[in-house]
Amino acid sequence: MSVRGDVWSIYRETLPILFVALGGGLFAGLVLEGLLESVDRFPGLLVMVPVFLATRGNVYGALGGRISSGLHQGLLEPRFEWDERLVNAVLASAINGIGISLVIGVITWLTLVTLGWEVAALSELVGIMVIAGVLTSIVLIFGLLALIFTGYTYGYDPDNLVGPIVTTLGDIFGMLFLLFAIDLIEVIG
Question: For 44, left (φ over 0), alpha (ψ -120 to 50), or beta?
Answer without folding.
Answer: left
